[in-house]
Design goal:
The complex is a heterotrimer of chains A (216), B (107) and C (1017). With 216 residues, chain A is an alpha+beta fold. Chain A contains 4 helices and 13 strands. In chain A, the strands form 2 sheets. In chain A, strands 1, 2, 8, 9, 10, 11, 12 and 13 form an 8-stranded mixed beta sheet that branches. In chain A, strands 4-5-6-3-7 form a 5-stranded antiparallel beta sheet, covered by helices on one side. In chain A, helix 3 packs across helix 4. The radius of gyration of chain A is 18 Å and the shape is globular. The N and C termini of chain A lie far apart (41 Å). Chain B is flat, with a radius of gyration of 16 Å. In chain B, strand 5 and strand 6 form a beta hairpin. By secondary structure, chain C is of the alpha+beta class. Chain C contains 25 helices and 48 strands. In chain C, the strands form 12 sheets. In chain C, strands 8, 9, 12, 13, 14, 15 and 27 form a 7-stranded mixed beta sheet that branches. In chain C, strands 17-23-18-19-20-21-22 form a 7-stranded mixed beta sheet. Classes of the chains: A alpha+beta (216), B alpha+beta (107), C alpha+beta (1017). Chains A and C meet through strand 7, helix 3 and helix 4 of A and strand 8, strand 37 and helix 22 of C. Chain B: One of its GO terms (biological process) is tetrahydrofolate metabolic process. Chain B: This is N-methylglutamate dehydrogenase subunit B. Chain B: InterPro entries: SoxD, SoxD_sf. Chain B: GO terms for molecular function: sarcosine oxidase activity. Chain C: Pfam families: FAD_oxidored (PF12831), Fer2_4 (PF13510), GCV_T (PF01571), GCV_T_C (PF08669), SO_alpha_A3 (PF17806).
Chain lengths: 216, 107, 1017
């Protein structure tokens, strides 16, 4: 018997083909892409174990565990806050490895771990009009003075929970926001983003890995 | 209305779900082998589940930040003006290991 | 940044005092001035009114263009179909309502005074037939005795059925305003959030001054202006500020605001409501000023503005005086006359008279004189008319009367004569085509009163000013009763600085600009007795005598007055009429105005289209949707989808040639029962319950025990609410000592997660347990049928033992699939067949569906949908949503024995209440029609044979039905009193809704394989 082929699919893979949407403008107001091939683990500190969890995270990921709404970058891993004494670890997927491999031991008795690598899709949004567009989706104040690079939030878009954090600015100086959405909502939210972006002109660039910059 | 989540900061009320009066305390869990149920438990639960004050003024309430950090919050809110004078995290949010002061344990 | 802040070329010419070109030849604008106004004569626009071609200029409103074209009659009134003209020049307009645009974009009741003119605009007058000039329904005026206050209540009381059949249709035809298009709105709308330190509402002198001060202080400022152009009364009232013309000052101030990156000026944006916590609702009319919005742009946008502080500088609204014929075309607010002349260079008439009770009205005389208009007379009701005004009259050659206007004459196209009753007792007739009236000014107290703050009365200005404001709000300038230009500038500046400081912004803000401090002089005059109808609320045709009648009939309270007469309930929400109405009520009831009081102010302050409130959320975007990982695959196979909450689920998979759903579903069930099929169950809620106390935690929330469940085992669990009623059910597995995988029903996934967090965080903080949803992490399929194991052996690694011994019923473990993917395999069954559930990480969900088809091809595998799933669970008597319906106990569902007696759990105590353990309760049973060909229907009630159907004889109802291909007939589950004792009894299924009544047999709910051998085999 021949083995089966296991092709990984994203709910966005048909939506994220590079193309331009909306208003025909010289420079697209919105640049949109999907980030692929990541592992995502939710780390929930056990009772009384926040300090121990933070210490283990520092040792394992080389990054400070966020105790408040921040996204902290380590060498390959971004840790971002998602709630009281809990945060996500986001890192590039290692083929054939389970994301929790190697993590169980260092976090044993300190934190509970939940693999969410497939439970979320990651959408990256940038462009000169990104704040005007996100004002239609998010009730947060994303002004630079309030939500600087490295700020994170657990919030809602279209009544669906999302994690939102601000990355380093794009080459053109536009802010870059990462929006982590539930996999089942991804298609719906993507289209809401497209609709909200249309008046500014949207450029969908090809899906890319965590450590890659989006490019068309 | 906006609620200042102690973890997330001020957020619009669409991110929150209202539960209601935070005053009634759930009677403690009991060990059935020993007691077969606690004395007067039916009355205690009746009070806990059904009896509510209809407050026009300041009231302690539970709200759930389900559209955000998923913490349960205890608010003091004026039901007549919607003014919120205090927001605290529930005792067991995050990794806090608060002793079972109010809820009791199986002993 | 929205809106243009720089002077247009026309304005520049105006500011420089240059002569502008005359209107182009062929112009219809008989009443347009050759110079002046904030219009662009280089940009003429064509439009039609009632089909008649006219021209105007960019910068015009429809109303100003109509004025320029000499149009005076623009509509018919609501009740009496009286001819009406344009009363105001702003959003408070009650009369000049038109149908704008055509086809699907036709919009009724649009105020001509706020509709910006655009090329090709089409407007129709409303409420007239066959034409505006000859309106048949104006006969209503003759019937006016029956249209008095409360006529709805009095005239059409009896007999009741006459109301629906005769009165209402007749009234609706005769009254009412414009017609909606009846078609779907082709335009788009959206909603957005904005955040600032200081929101300034209104961009008149006060608002601009406040925004400048707050902006200079470093605050993030939003200046919202409902008009297309910032400036407020500065655009119409002339005057000097800081030694320059007020328009020049305005241009400089707006230029400075636009240079401040922390200030955002939003024109065409009306703040309509004040909500809790410093949240304000605003409507931006993004593309109302063009024929159709550019592609990809919205027509209107609803803003939710979150502001630490708010300065309301919304100005004031001039109020009419109530006298006979005050609604006739040609009678216009004095300030509006000024606006049409100064801002739009359009003359409302050639011979203007003024009727005023205050000093401000005289500014209209000045403006008219500047424009070269003849003033026929000024009627000032104040006892002492200042000498300098009399001197001005003398110089300019018009007469001044101390007295009142008590009647006007004229036809539908406008007034021609005015009757003046002088204070000294004689009556004078004056020829005039326009009567400007000013009854004083009402500060705009609406927004300030949205949190129930009661306005307070000020005798010196004879008006209400805001009382206690919502937290974070101050009101400044005319909106607060300060009517002089100098006072407005100072108040705005001070409010701006204070609001910025309260938001922590304290940079230097300079000092306020200086201007005249001339105060308003007013002697109240509300109502002049006369012979004819004198209108208070123009839009709802409420007259002074209606108010007197309401008072006589006991409707003295302002809230009663409002509802009885409909005063202030029209689209202008009484902004012209409320204060005057209650002043008249005070007069006739012998109380003071403050004693009479005001009605409650509520949002929205201006009409907001439902489309704007809905925003993006319409049609297919009405709510977000959730798709399972194999959705695309199912769609490719032609699955029919059903909405289950937000989810789209495959309901059945029709094959070519299948003529109806029942054929497809029967085939799916038979294929599973005889072979193998699989069903997407990814929508079930999934929760990781982790931590050392996970087992103890589950023991408390489930009625049965879970701490005793072995690792690698699954168990069906039932949760109760605290009141003893069933909350939810599902299968929960123990994956590790400190890790349970809990499933919920699709519908209750969210509520159960919220509840479990409540238990963890609020009820039992002492338990060391962590929770997170993992619903979206897994693609899960139920594989069922006698050939399930054969199929699985194809797809899992051969080393995995799937035998009954190696993988017994209710076992759970990870297995490797051929090709390298690791799956979780659960031996659980909902269908009653030999079954497994298999889950893989969501990214492999699509591949798993395709691979199951390949692996099962030789066994005839099919996908089946939720309908077949439902049929099989009914055949097995498994309860689901229709039985877990918020009224049933574990005992009702036949699951009472699951409750542990060794541990406590939520719901235990109240589930033991007398009523919940009553042996007469309705319990789950099977039901099947005696006539096997008969279709059973959900919702039918069970009645004993021979009993007359009534609430007393009603013993239960049918909850779930299906056509069972195994039994070859319709079967169902139901809740029936003492049902378990009554197997074999025949009762009636009574269905008055569908007009059906037939015999059914009560039976064991497990119709199929009652021994359960198939699922354990």
């Amino acid at each position: 018997m021949a083995d089966f082929t296991w092709t990984a699919t994203s709910p966005l893979q048909h939506a994220t083909r590079p193309r331009r949407h909306g208003a025909a403008v010289q420079q697209s107001g919105i640049v949109l892409s999907e980030v692929l091939d990541f592992s995502l683990v939710l780390i929930l500190a056990r009772r009384g174990q926040w300090s121990a969890t933070a210490k283990a995270a520092k040792e394992f990921f080389g990054a400070e565990a966020p105790a408040k709404p921040l996204a902290v970058r380590g060498k390959t891993t971004t840790l971002f806050w998602s709630g009281a004494d809990q945060f996500y670890a986001l890192f590039p997927r290692v083929p054939a490895a389970q994301p929790l491999d190697g993590m169980r031991e260092p976090f044993a008795a300190k934190a509970s771990l939940s693999d969410q690598s497939d439970g979320r899709c990651l959408i990256q949004i940038s462009g000169p009009k990104v704040r005007a567009m996100l004002a239609k989706l998010s009730s947060l104040d994303l002004d630079g003075s309030v939500f600087p690079v490295g700020a994170a939030a657990a919030t809602s878009i279209d009544h669906s929970g999302v994690n939102l954090w601000r990355d380093t600015d794009a080459a053109d100086g536009s802010p870059v926001y990462n929006v982590l959405v539930f996999t089942s909502f991804a298609d719906s939210i993507w289209h809401t983003i497209l609709d909200s972006s249309a008046e500014y002109g949207v450029e969908v660039v090809r899906p890319h890995a965590l450590d890659e910059k989006p490019s068309s | 209305m906006r609620i200042a989540c102690p973890f997330c900061g001020e957020r619009e009320n669409g991110e929150f779900t209202y539960l209601g009066d935070a005053k009634p305390q759930r009677p403690a869990m009991v060990a059935l082998e020993v007691a077969g149920g606690a004395a007067g438990e039916a009355e205690a639960f009746y009070d806990y589940v059904y009896l509510r004050d209809n407050v026009a003024g300041e009231m302690d309430e539970y709200w759930y930040h389900g559209g955000g950090c998923r913490s349960w919050l205890r608010l003091t809110r004026n039901t007549a003006t919607h003014e919120i004078t205090s927001v605290e995290a529930a005792p067991g949010t995050g990794a806090s290991s608060s002793p079972a002061s109010t809820a009791g344990t199986i002993s | 940044m929205t809106g243009s802040l720089s002077l247009t070329s026309a304005e520049a010419r105006f500011a420089a005092g240059a002569k502008a070109p005359v209107a182009p030849s062929g112009s219809t604008q008989s009443n347009r001035l050759d110079t002046g106004g904030l219009i662009d004569r280089a940009a003429p626009l064509n439009f039609t009114f009632d089909g008649k071609a006219m021209t105007g200029f960019a910068g015009d409103t429809l109303a100003s263009a109509l004025v320029a074209n000499g149009v005076r009659l623009v509509g018919r009134s609501f009740k009496y179909h009286r001819p009406r003209g344009i009363l105001t020049a702003g959003s408070e307009e009650p009369n000049a309502l038109v149908e704008l645009r055509s086809g699907a974009r036709r919009e009724p009741n649009t105020k001509a005074t706020t509709a910006e003119l655009y090329q090709g605009l089409e407007a129709l007058s409303q409420n007239r037939w066959p034409s505006l000039r000859y309106d048949v329904m104006s006969v209503n005026q003759l019937l006016s005795p029956i249209f008095v206050a409360g006529f709805y209540y009095k005239t059409f009381m009896w007999p009741a059925k006459f109301w629906e059949m005769i009165y209402e249709p007749a009234i609706r035809r005769a009254a009412g305003l414009g017609r909606s298009s009846g078609l779907a709105d082709p335009d788009h709308y959206d909603k957005a959030w904005a955040h600032c330190d200081v929101l300034v509402v209104g961009s008149g002198p006060t608002g601009v001054s406040a925004a400048l001060a707050a902006g200079r202080a470093g605050a993030r400022v939003i200046l919202a202006e409902e008009d297309s152009r910032a400036g407020g009364r500065l655009l119409s009232d002339g005057g000097e500020i800081g030694g320059m013309s007020s328009r020049e000052w305005l241009a400089n101030a707006l230029a400075e605001l636009s240079s401040l990156s922390n200030v955002r000026v939003m024109t065409r944006t009306a703040v309509f409501g004040v909500y809790d916590g410093g949240t304000y609702g605003a409507l931006e009319r993004v593309n109302d000023h063009v024929a159709t919005p550019p592609e990809h742009e919205v027509r209107q946008r609803l803003w939710r503005i979150v502001a630490k502080r708010c300065v309301v500088a919304a100005g004031a609204i001039e109020r009419p005086i109530v006298f006979s014929g005050n609604d006739r075309p040609g009678v216009m607010m004095a300030s509006a006359v000024r606006t049409y002349i100064e801002r739009f260079a359009a003359l409302p008439g050639k011979r203007v008279a003024l009727f005023t009770n205050n000093s401000d009205g005289w500014r209209t005389v000045e403006a008219a004189l500047r424009a070269g208009v003849e003033i026929s007379a000024v009627i000032d009701s104040r006892p002492g008319i200042p000498e300098e005004l009399r001197a001005m009259a003398e110089v300019s050659g018009f007469r001044v009367f101390n007295g009142v206007v008590h009647d006007v004459r004229g036809g539908a196209s406008g007034i021609s004569r005015i009757s003046v009753a002088q204070a000294k007792g004689t009556t004078v007739e004056i020829a005039a085509d326009t009567l400007a009236m000013s009854g004083g000014w009402n500060p705009s107290v609406g927004l300030a009163s949205h949190h129930r703050g009661r306005p307070t009365w000020r005798d010196d200005i004879a008006a209400f000013v805001p009382g206690e404001c919502p937290p974070g709000m101050v009101v400044a300038g005319a909106a607060n009763g300060d009517f002089s230009l100098g006072a407005c500038l100072r108040a705005g500046h001070a409010a701006g600085i204070a609001a910025a400081a309260e938001s922590g912004r304290t940079q230097k803000a300079g000092s306020p600009a200086a201007a005249s401090d001339e105060a308003l002089s007013i002697t109240p005059l509300w109502h002049v007795e006369g012979k004819h109808k004198a209108f208070v609320d123009f839009q709802h045709d409420v007259t002074a005598s209606d108010i007197a009648l309401a008072q006589r009939e006991g409707f003295e309270s302002v809230e009663h007055l409002k509802r009885y007469t409909t005063l202030g309930m029209a689209t202008d929400q009484g902004r012209n009429s409320n204060v005057t109405g209650l002043a008249i009520m005070a007069e006739v009831s012998g109380r003071t105005i403050p004693q009479t009081g005001t009605t409650i102010y509520r949002p929205p302050q201006v009409p907001v289209a439902i489309g704007a409130l809905a925003g993006h959320h319409r049609d297919e975007n009405f709510h977000s949707t959730r798709l399972t990982p194999s959705h695309r695959w199912a769609a490719e196979r032609g699955a029919t989808f059903v909405d289950t909450g937000l989810w789209k689920r495959a309901q059945w998979y029709p094959l070519p040639g299948e003529k109806d759903w029942l054929t497809s579903v029967d085939r799916e069930v038979l294929t599973v029962r005889n072979g193998v099929g699989f069903c997407d169950v990814s929508t079930l809620g999934k929760i990781d319950v982790m931590g050392p106390d996970a087992g103890a935690f589950l023991d408390r929330v489930y009625i049965n025990a879970f701490s005793s469940l072995g690792v690698g085992k699954a168990r069906y669990g039932l949760m109760l609410r605290e009141d003893g009623i069933v909350m939810d059910d599902g299968t929960t597995s123990r994956l590790a000592e400190d890790h349970y995988f809990l499933t919920t029903t699709t519908a209750k996934a969210g509520p159960v997660m919220q509840y479990l967090e409540y238990c963890r965080q609020v009820l039992w903080p002492e338990l060391d347990v962590q929770l997170t949803s993992c619903t979206d992490q897994w693609a899960q399929f139920s594989i069922a049928g006698p050939k399930t194991r054969d199929l699985l052996r194809e797809i899992v690694e051969p080393s995995e033992d799937l035998s009954n011994e190696g993988f017994p019923f209710m076992a759970v473990r990870e297995v490797k699939l051929r090709g390298g993917v690791v799956a979780r395999l659960f031996r659980i069954s909902f269908s009653g067949e030999m079954a497994f559930e298999i889950s893989v990480p969501a990214r492999f969900g699509d591949a798993l569906a395709r691979n199951l088809m390949i692996a099962g091809k030789q066994f005839g595998v099919i996908p089946y949908g939720t309908e077949a799933l439902g049929v099989m669970r009914i055949e097995k008597g498994h309860v689901a949503g229709p039985e877990l319906n918020g009224t049933t106990t574990a005992g009702d569902l036949g699951l009472g024995k699951m409750a542990s007696k060794k541990k406590d759990f939520v719901g235990r105590v109240l589930a033991a209440r007398e009523g919940l353990v009553d042996p007469n309760r309705q319990v789950v049973v099977g039901l099947k029609p005696v006539d096997k060909a008969r279709r059973l229907r959900s919702g039918a009630h069970t009645i004993p044979k021979g009993a007359r159907p009534s609430p007393e004889t009603d013993q239960g109802y049918v909850t779930s039905v299906c056509h069972s291909p195994m039994l070859g007939q319709w079967i169902g589950l139901g809740l029936v009193e003492r049902g378990r004792e009554r197997y074999g009894e025949i009762v009636r299924a009574h269905d008055p809704l569908r007009g059906e009544d037939y015999d059914v047999e009560i039976c064991n709910p497990v119709f199929y394989d009652p021994e359960g051998g198939r699922q354990r085999g």
